[in-house]
Amino acid sequence: MKLTMQRVRRGVMPLCVLACAELSVSGSEPAPTSGDARVGPSADARGPPDLAPRPSPRDAASRDAEDAPSLTDLPTSPLDDRMAPPLMAAIDLLPPDADPTDAPDLAPPPPPPDGPRGRFPGLPLVYNHAPASDARVATLIAEALGGLGFGPGDPSGPQPEDRVFVGRYLMAWIDETGFYGKMNGLWRLNGVAGDALDFEVRDGDRPLNFLIVGERGDGQFPPGYPGAEHIEFPSGVPEPNDDPTCGDGDWCNQYALNEATNITDRDIPWWRACNNGGPTFETRFLPIEEDETEGGLRLMYEGPLVKEADGDGTHDGDDCHAHWLFEDGVRRRVNLRVGYEFRRDDFAFDRLMQLSNPEGNPTFDGPMSLIGGFVITSWPNAHIVKRLDQYLRPELRDQADTAHGLTLRRQAWNDHDRPVVAGDEIFAWMGQPVSLSVAPGFVTGRSVTLSHEGASDNDDVGFCLCSVHGGFELGGGLIHGGLSLPLAAGQSSPEARRRLSLPPGLAPREPQVRVFEAEVDLAHNFGRLDGDGWSANTAQEDEGHLIYGPYANDLGDAAIAVGFRMLVDNVDAEDLRVVILDVFDADAAEILASVPVSRADFIVPFQYQDFTLDVSLVGRAGHRIETRVYWEDTSYVKVDHVSVRPR
User: What is the signed CA dihedral for 520, 521, 524, 528, rounded to 10 degrees?
Assistant: First the structure.
């Protein structure tokens, strides 16, 4: 039995702007699963929690789908290269010791390129390289960005000042408001010419972002990352208040680009310590290079490499956002350039990175590399459609899976459907392309191939099932000390190139979801109707089964995922177990999956969260299946619904 936690919402939330304006291989053993068993809706079950608590995405203002405008009937107009987005001031980005003029990342925009770039009303700047009409492309963009679920006026969502590239197979949202042109949205298209151009993967009726931002349609950023990519460059130079020997270990402090973020993950206080003093989502970052041709698009951005994680142990945020600390104890600017190359007819794109050491600086070096990658979904609470860890395929040589004691055979799809390990599961220095998929073969939009394609220093290909940060990362390391570094004054590193490919394959299966509402479709032993759910509180009820049912005998005989959507009123009180969830075969009198949920497993109060059990119904066709929530009388709990979908 595997457990994931998900966030869901009811309906698709429109987007206002569209219609109005850390790496070492874990040797930990797999997390234990609950062995509790009980029969019938009133039996008792006790046991230690086996959830790895995950912090929440940032809080968001309430969304009102009924009052927001529709996204599918937007007017279009001819492309106009003359309409350039405004440049917004960002002096607050600079560290306290910086000269306000020291800001090449805020340079004036380049002149408009020749090519199909242009604007549609209310949309970001569009690069239309798709084999479809402007009107069709505008509709697809509106549908994709609206499906992320950001509410009206939410500055963290897509803005007209951002950019969108649309090719035959890929659509990408390049977020320039609060980020250095970071790709926070990626969608696989079917490549069909004309108005039949469409999305390959949907979650219900909305296009599913291949990346983590808004993946559940709730307008949320991940709690452990600044958007949909993680980049960190460790420093081994101690600050005055650091342990002088910190550089003898992994790192003293972490450096990255300073972007709009609100790290809420309680597992990484060193990153949370640098939340304050960064840019806002109103801050605009413009590219230093924009090269559009008939065959595609290249964008490059540049910003200073600054302290973004405080590793001194007190996590007080001292010197956050300050320049790189050289070994002589002086901070100086070092630049990190990041960008993308998109090709019109390709189902792959390249992520570009380069470090630059300005004239007058001492030699720049580092003990590791630019570590991280694309964050495609939360972990261990992965989106059910994006469990690309199920099958792994190294391309050139066999690969050890040290966490599970397996050998992954080259050019073969290896079953990696294994229990989640305690801690991070990391593959690094693979030295070859690797493919990941939801099935033993390529599935369009639900499989990926990762490789490094630079002129040199390409061996650190890898991925991380990162429970600590709470994300599934595809990347590894680029620009390593001892390989691409050091850099003398005035030198730049080779341009590193990480390639992500969403190859064609089998047509993706659309999960068919059945929803059983707690207030009308399921039975109750106690509690009351409470808005859109069924609740119990410690003042009025004693422990027992809050809900049970539906005794459905038509759920089939294959693997299913059962999601329990619940909330609590307080996440800061004593960390007691609040409910036990299970799936019960009423005909065989057998618990098929069970897990306890404690208060710490809820992230923020009064916000629904999904807890999902993976269940096998093989050999149980026609059996009456019951889903149950056993309430422990330790916290207010409200249940919205139980959902069932094929795995």
Answer: -20
* Predicted pLDDT at 78: 29
pLDDT tens column, 45-90: 323 222 222 233 323 333 222 332 233 333 222 223 323 333 333 3
Contacts of 285 (CB under 8 A, 6+ apart): 90, 105, 106, 176, 177, 178, 179, 180, 181, 301, 303
* Cα distance between residue 447 and residue 441, in whole Å: 8
Residue 556: CATH number of its domain: 2.60.120.260
Look at residue 14 and tell me if it is in a domain: no
Whether the bond into 511 is cis, omega within 30 of 0: no
pLDDT at res. 609:
87
The answer to whether residues 472 and 379 touch, using CB atoms and an 8 Å cutoff, is yes
229 within domain boundaries? no
CA distance 225 to 260: 10
373-394 confidence digits (pLDDT tens): 999 999 988 888 899 999 999 9
CB-count burial class (<10 Å; 0-12, 13-18, 19+) for 219: buried
The H-assigned helical ranges of 465-542 are none
Q: Which domain holds residue 635?
A: 21-63+512-646
Using DSSP, state whether 401 is helix, strand or coil.
Answer: strand
Structure tokens at 124: 């970001």
How crowded is residue 619: how many other Cβ atoms within 10 Å of its Cβ?
8
Those residues whose C-beta lies under 8 Å from the C-beta of residue 10, and which sit 6 or more positions away, are 532, 640
Confidence class of residue 439 from pLDDT cuts 50, 70 and 90? very high
Using CB atoms within 10 Å of the CB of residue 311, give its burial: 0 to 12 exposed, 13 to 18 middle, 19+ buried.
Answer: buried
Contact 143, 14 (CB under 8 A): no
In this structure, the number of other CB atoms found within 10 A of the CB of residue 317 comes to 18
Number of folded domains that form the chain: 1
The H or E element spanning position 202 is strand 202-203
530 is a domain residue: yes
Residue at 517 is within a domain:
yes
Backbone φ and ψ for 632, nearest 5 degrees, come out as: -95, 0
How buried is residue 572: exposed, middle or buried, by Cβ count under 10 Å (0-12/13-18/19+)?
Answer: exposed
Please name the amino acid found at residue 414. N
In this structure, the chain runs to a length of 647
Give the C-alpha separation, 220 to 7, whole Å: 9
The closest of 383, 384, 381, 433 to 408, measured between CA atoms, is: 433
